[in-house]
């Protein structure tokens, strides 16, 4: 069953201007990961420091595998360097 994952980010004030470009670089590995059906980056129209990544995965298992990959030295990214705090992940099963 398809899974949509929403990763909410709060960007540090000094990193807001280059945040989307930075995130796009990090997302190259995400988009190439097996089971990823796509990722959209959306920016809050009233608060550009609030960014949400809308990820679509083929299965919960593929999303889990991706999260496990990002927790390894090989999969680690530097996304945390532009964040004001920890991201919030919420995952949803798509009902068909």
From TrEMBL:
Descriptive protein name: Antibiotic biosynthesis monooxygenase
Signal peptide: none
InterPro entries: ABM_dom (IPR007138), Dimeric_a/b-barrel (IPR011008)
Example GO molecular function: monooxygenase activity
Domain ABM: 7-74
Record-linked Pfam families: ABM (PF03992)
Keyword line: Monooxygenase, Oxidoreductase
Domain of life: Bacteria
